[in-house]
Structures are given as structure tokens and as C-alpha cells.
Target: Acyltransferase
Amino acid sequence: MGNNQVREESLGYFNLARGLGMVLILAGHSLNPLRSVPETAGFFTGAGSILGGGIIAAFFMISGFGFYRRSPRKCLAIQKKLLLRPYYLTAAAVLVTKLLLALLKRRSFWRHGGELVLTYLLGLNGEGGGQLCGIPIESVSILWFLLALFIGWMIYNGCLQLQSKWLRRGVIAGCVIGSYGLTLIAKVWPFCLPMGLLAAGYLAAGDYIRRNRLLEKKMPGWLWGSLFLVVLICAAFGDVNIVAGVWGLGLLDVAGSFCTGFLLLRLYARWMARDREGRITGLLEEIGLHSIWIVCLHAYEKIIFPWYRVYEIFSGQPWLAVMLCFAGRCAVMYLFYRIIVQLECYWKRKKRKKKITIEL
Model:
């Protein structure tokens, strides 16, 4: 158990969780086309949505475990490299591919991809499409996570520059409440601003959990009861969709996402109490280690590849279509991942040879 306590201080402890989360996201997106029938009203129809919100909250909280205060300039430089560079590289790859497809098929780029130009430049979360000042827009898809994480890191790092502990807490609470308030004004915001404000709260929660060792510390019964009560109420009556800015029970659903995320992390810590080894575990940990680039690859294939045709071909066997789509996505992403790894190794070798030549 001693080794486990040491590991909990670092992001590496959560590589398995992040890897498993990425696989679940792929599976969920492969299942989405089957969810054409709206859910009927009734108790616990929001259970799936609060679980999804909790998983997203847990992802951000995990990032909070790796938080260290830095100067605003250094924090900006690091997060630009880690988050904004992958975002814009992926956006450029999508737009270039869309342009090439338009040229090959002799069709209008602006009608088949042009809506993504403004979407990526402004980082819009226009789920289901729409218009901004008469210009067609779409959603940045899963890349919203990178933008929200970037904003969250910058805000939380800025908060820690404040001397007063209560002022820091007040600013973070204001960000979380403000995030919900923005969704009441409009659902589409530049640079996924509501999610970025909320991410600052999740990061702060993750940092607080790490510093106070709440994943292993015993908690009083009344606190457990309060956490489960909030989650049960949200599961019974709530409706959570962080990307679309939907909070059926308002701030109670927001609190429910925090509670669910924390409970999932506690469950993970309990599961990790024993050493986890094996090929599958190793593969999931590798996926978790490179989760940012896996997100980017998924965002690319999700937009570029015509997966909807798989469901059309196997319309009479929907579950077979789901499995084929999931397997195809995994294969495509693995191929792209290996290509990126090989290119990275090539550029590192080339850079190293150039450095040696200069020294000689």
C-alpha cells in the first residue's frame, strides 16, 4: 500500500483510468447512432447523463493531480505546447483533408467542410450545427476538452497567485457558478468558455483531493451520505450534458457532477489497491499516457471517416455495425498513432544528428 500512496501523487497513477476512459469514449461514440429513440420520462432517466458528467469531471480532476503553480508566463508557454498546439494541428489536418476531398470529388469546400473554418478558429461548441451571424458553424467535437483544460489551467494557476485562501476559493466558486450562468444566456460560446470556467473548478477539486489525500483517507458517514444523496437526486431527476450546456437541475446537477467524479476516483483508488499487471493493463496505460494525442486522433477520424455508412450497410444488424465501427476506429487510430510515433522518432534523430554536426 505504501507504493500506491506514492503513486497517487503523480499523473502516472491514473494512466490506466485515462486509457480505460478513452476506450469507453470510443465505444460510446460508436453507440450514438443507435440512440435515435428519445428516452421516456420517469425516475432515474438521468442516471446515464450524471454518470457521463461524472466521468468528464473525473478526467479534469485527474489533471488537477498533476497541477503545480507556475508564473503566468511559464504556465501559458507550457499549456500552449501541451494543449493548443495539438488542437490547432488537428484542426489544420481536418481542414486540409476536407479541402482535398472537395477537390477529388469536385464539390464545394464551403458546403462540405467550410463550416469548420470559423468553428475551429473560434473554438465553438455548436453541437448539432447552427449559424453565427449567418455563417454556418459546427462543433469542435471532442477537442473541446483541450480548450476547456487550457482555460481551466490558466484560471486556476492565476488564482493561486492570490495570497488570500478565501479569495482563491471565492474566485473558483465564481467560475463554477459563472459557467452555469453562461449556459443560461447562450449554448454556443467562443473557445468553449463555459466548460473552461467549469474545468477550473474540477482542477481545483483534483488538486484539493491530492493535497488532502482524500482518495485514501477515511471519511465520516454523514459525508458519504451527502455525496450519495446528491448523486441519487441527480440520477433520478437531473439531465447533464456538459458539452451542450444542459443542467436539468441547475447548480444541483453541477454539484452532482463533482460528487460523481469524486466517487469514481475513490472507486478507482480502491480497485488499484492491488497491483494491476498484464498486456491489457499495459496497453490501457500506454493509451492513458498519450491520451491528449488519442483525443486528437479520435477527433480527426470522427469527422473525416464516413462511419455512418457502416450503419447503413448493416441496418438490419445494428449491434454488428457498432462492433465493426468500434473495431475500425481502434484500427485506424492505432495506425495513425504508430505513424506519429515513427515521425516523432525520425525528427528527434534528425535533430540529434544536426546538433552533433554543429558541435563537431
In short: Residues 39-273 form one domain. The first helix runs from residue 2 to 7. Confidence is low (pLDDT under 50) at residues 1-6, 37-41.
